Amino acid sequence: MLSELNELVWDHFNSEHISKHGITQDEVTQACTNHKLVLQANNNRLLLIGKSSSGKLISVVLANKGEGKYYPVTARATSRKERRLLNEKSK
Description:
By secondary structure, the protein is α+β, with helices and mostly antiparallel strands. The chain has one domain: Ribonuclease toxin, BrnT, of type II toxin-antitoxin system (Nuclear Transport Factor 2, Chain: A).
């Protein structure tokens, strides 16, 4: 589902948007590197759940831009429902 991720594409909008959720670009990069679960989301996007280096579970919505480039639409702390789903999938 997640083809090779070579680059995250950042602009002012997504940088500002994730900061409103208390997430940094570095944490998004770490979560994408240490992803635990990738699901198909709405509008041909992916929902990725991963861990930051501090152990924080982060949910990232990614839009595929082609050639291994993904645009982080949003990122936030993983919800209880998503954590339950992660636990179920890892059993």
